[in-house]
Design goal:
418 residues; alpha/beta; Helicase, Ruva Protein, domain 3; Rossmann fold; 3 domains; five-stranded parallel β-sheet; 19 helices; binds adenosine-5'-diphosphate; binds magnesium ion
């Protein structure tokens, strides 16, 4: 037994040491890689270039909001424009600096300000100062540097949703307090309705210019993939069909280049693990299932316990009555499951609320239907493939055994008390 295990590892390591037949440069498929060439974004690059150009002379430019769904190239394009701009600025000796902050990852006002401070060489302790104090240090030092600071706030929508627009309010007014330096702000949002979240005063100073990034279509995604694949893979590893399929699947989603690149990377990893010489359509299909499975597993794993049990109830019912269930049935099964799991069930009203939340995050679909003179009810069904959610739920130790036991008590519940 021991030897067999050693053999397996030996083979795995040997294959690893031989190097990949598939990947020439794996890191080019990372999410944060910024390519030198960004096909189908020429006009956006030009618009952004025109907007930021005054900074080369140290002059502030109009504030700018960039919008578009995820994977439409906003971050990559903005980083690209900034890098070319900064190089040009250095050659010209322009009094300008740029700071790019991902607000979702950075997380707090304090840490965002600390990162702006570090761009202009001001040290701020990791915690401990009052926010106002950090702001004052930032303003004071910035003014003594006599420069134009470009502040790019990426994924600002996520940040404002969680923490409000206080930071934006302060930043958009900062020029009033500066005499020898200026700040120009660029906000990037994945949410097209971001403006609705802002105080009108913040909005009007933040969005003097707007640039919208449209989703890519399948042909455009294909061009993006082909360019990237040329550098990331060895020649002949990738069939034209596999690339086309990645592009088509991602275009059907919402024209998301990140999804297209993820499909390509995961498909190639599957091919590599199999020891295959090339990436096939089949690998892409399997990659799609893998990615979807991981996405759903993550969503379900992060649910609170009672929401998980609601999903489990809908799943079980869908095995019986191939399709939708009504709230009453779901509640009966939910209560029974709570008992099996040794938990106290919530009220039907609360469970209704949980069902609505699960609809919002896309795990369930609900539809209100009229029952004529018996009033109204909700029809509920899974918004994701049954098999996928089944696999994910079975991976949960507690649910796995309940799932096996279910046929014993389910039918009675449904016939009994609707
Ligand atoms: P967003 O910020 O809009 O969510 P990103 O800029 O992060 O999108 O793009 C997602 C991924 O797709 C990144 O890996 C990026 O390099 C790539 N990408 C997006 N648009 C292009 C393009 N036009 N050409 C090449 N790669 C692109
Ligand atoms: Mg982005």
């Amino acid at each position: 037994m021991k030897n067999r295990q050693a053999d397996v590892l030996d083979e795995v390591f040997q294959r690893f040491l031989q190097g990949s037949h598939i990947f020439q440069n794996r890191s080019l498929l990372r999410h944060d890689y910024v390519p030198d060439k960004l096909p189908h974004r020429e006009s956006e690059i030009r618009s952004l270039g025109e907007i930021v150009a005054p900074s080369l002379e140290g002059a502030p430019f109009s504030s700018l909001l960039i919008y578009g769904k995820t994977g439409t190239g906003k971050t990559a394009v903005m980083r690209y424009v900034l890098s070319v701009l900064s190089r040009k600025g250095e050659v010209l000796g322009s009094p300008m600096k740029a700071c790019f902050v991902n607000c979702r990852l950075t997380g707090t006002e304090y840490r965002i300000l600390a990162s702006l401070c570090s761009t202009i060489g001001v040290k701020v302790p990791f915690t401990g100062l009052a926010l106002g104090e950090v702001f004052d240090r930032f303003k004071g030092s910035l003014d003594s540097h006599k420069l134009l600071l470009i502040v790019v706030l990426d994924e600002i929508d996520e940040f404002v949703r969680k923490r409000g627009d206080f930071l934006l309010y302060e930043l958009t007014r900062i020029n009033e307090a500066l005499s020898d330096s200026k700040v120009s702000i660029i906000g990037i949002s994945n949410d097209l309705r971001f403006k609705e979240m802002l105080d009108p005063r913040v909005l009007s100073t933040l969005s003097e210019e707007e640039v919208v990034f449209k989703p890519y279509n399948a042909d455009e995604l294909r061009d993006i993939l082909v360019d990237r694949a040329e550098l990331a893979f060895y020649d002949g590893v990738l069939s034209d069909g596999a690339v086309r399929l990645c592009a088509a699947l991602a275009a059907a989603e919402h024209g998301d280049a990140r999804r297209a690149l993820d499909l390509l990377r995961v498909a190639a990893e599957l091919a590599e693990r199999e020891g295959a010489d090339s990436v096939s359509d089949e690998h892409v299909r399997n990659a799609e299932r893998r990615i979807e499975h991981d996405r759903i597993a993550e969503a379900v794993t992060n649910l609170p316990a009672h929401s998980k049990i609601v999903v489990l109830s809908v799943y079980m019912l869908s095995r019986l009555n191939s399709g939708h269930s009504v709230t009453g049935h779901i509640y009966n099964v939910y209560s029974e499951l709570c008992e099996e799991l040794g938990m106290v069930p919530l009220t039907q009203r609360r469970v209704s609320g949980l069902i609505n939340e699960l609809d919002v995050i896309g795990l369930l679909n609900t539809q209100v239907v009229s029952l004529g003179r018996y009033g109204r009810t909700k029809k509920i069904h899974l918004a994701i493939p049954r098999a996928l959610i089944g696999n994910v739920l079975c991976e949960d130790d507690r649910f796995g055994s309940v799932l096996k036991d279910a046929p014993r008590f389910l039918p009675g519940l449904i016939e009994g008390k609707a």
